[in-house]
Amino acid sequence: xxxxxxxxxxxxxxxxxxxxxxxxxxxxxxxxxxxxxxxxxxxxxxxxxxxxxxxxxxxxxxxxxxxxxxxxxxxxxxxxxxxxxxxxxxxxxxxxxxxxxxxxxxxxxxxxxxxxxxxxxxxxxxxxxxxxxxxxxxxxxxxxxxxxxxxxxxxxxxx
Length: 159
Fold this sequence. Notes:
By secondary structure, the chain is mainly alpha-helical.
């Protein structure tokens, strides 16, 4: 293990421990490779800024769609807004790929109503591996019936 001074792309300078053999100058090449990146703190800050921007965009789209504000901590709400938006978009993408794109507006109305019934940010976060489950669980009988009818129409149109 050896310490190498790194002048990062972002302008910061730190010392980094680089391990491994150095028979053919591997550590120096690693140090040169690291210098072409932003420092870890700048990369972390950039990722946090990207996440905040994505959450703000998802919140704006959700609000424009008429979805109510989510309840929870600021961090939970920011995270859940993106999960909720992705769930709705995922269902709509499935409908469009099925060849029933002309039904997308009707399907969107149904899933937006169902998504609006869940305002707990934690519920969306807990279901993040399959957030469409939240939408399915929040559909009432009328929505489920209408969705089944739309899918039957779509299936008939694709045959």
